[in-house]
Design a protein that fits this description.
Blueprint: E1 2-3, H1 4-12, E2 17-21, H2 57-68, E3 77-81, H3 91-102, E4 107-114, H4 121-131, E5 136-143, H5 147-152, H6 159-171, E6 175-182, H7 189-201, E7 208-213, E8 216-217, H8 221-228, H9 236-249, E9 255-258, E10 268-270, H10 277-288, H11 295-300
Helix pairs in contact: 3-4, 7-9, 9-10
This protein binds iron/sulfur cluster.
Amino acid sequence: MIRLSDYLKAVFGEKIYRLSLSSGCTCPNRDGTIMSGGCTFCSEGGSGEFAAQTGDLSERIEEAKARIRQKTDAKRFIAYFQSYSNTYGDPDRLRALYMETIRREDIAVLSLATRPDCLPPGIMALLADLNAIKPVWVELGLQTSCERTAEAIRRGYPLDVFTKGYAALKQAGIGVIVHIILGLPGESREDMLSTARYLASLDPPPDGIKIQMLQVLKGTALGDRYLKDPFPLMTLGEYAACVRDIAGILPPRTVLHRMTGDGPRALLIAPEWCLHKKNVLNTMNRCLQDCFVPYELASARPETVTRRPG
Ligand code: SF4
């Protein structure tokens, strides 16, 4: 795997930072189109509690930049539309919003979190147009390749929908980052490694991956279940070892965009160790230290697809 910071420096010449933004979209798994309760682990914020929500686009971007600039003097950013399904909405409205975003000088990449069943032809055409201006990353929430678990977490689509949506995006030349969750109830370590094997078998394999420990949150179906009848959760050591095994399965060119969760502290029920971010990062970095390959080395491999700078 490639470290995200190495990848960004190699491709963009500098570290660029994510701005969490809201597109105003909802999700077919919440609005009744597929179902109304949402995935069992998903909180009301649609997995995007930190997104700037108010004001016009410029104001939201400046608000998000102000937060980042408390830590860095970054000049260019990834516009990350995180909450809910950001390709689920009126294509004309989304076109206006994303075109305005991607044309800004301070935006290097447009990153859209969504579902693989929210990629109709009009949206695919929009993504291709945007990707012709600057790199577009589509972040697909797979969580698991196991059909049994997918049903249990009410993901609302079978694996072949992911496979088709993923193929359409790759055919259009769009970067795809896949989100997976480790520690879902009922999943064995072998199930989690199977998900990694499934991703490694895709042709081409994903450009990036976000791996997250299951966080049981207040106000979710999973949280309610856990409070009534707690189920076992992975320890930090088990989680780190599993991420390490996944790193060994994925192709070297896959960029690791996230290796821990970033859920809202106030909503967290368990596991408690997720709250100690510094300890989690130190443990993960120790465990994964020999899993990363330099970007140049991974890029030299024949299967590597290099991205153009924005
Ligand atoms: S698809 Fe995403 S936003 Fe929709 S309910 Fe599931 S996790 Fe939440």
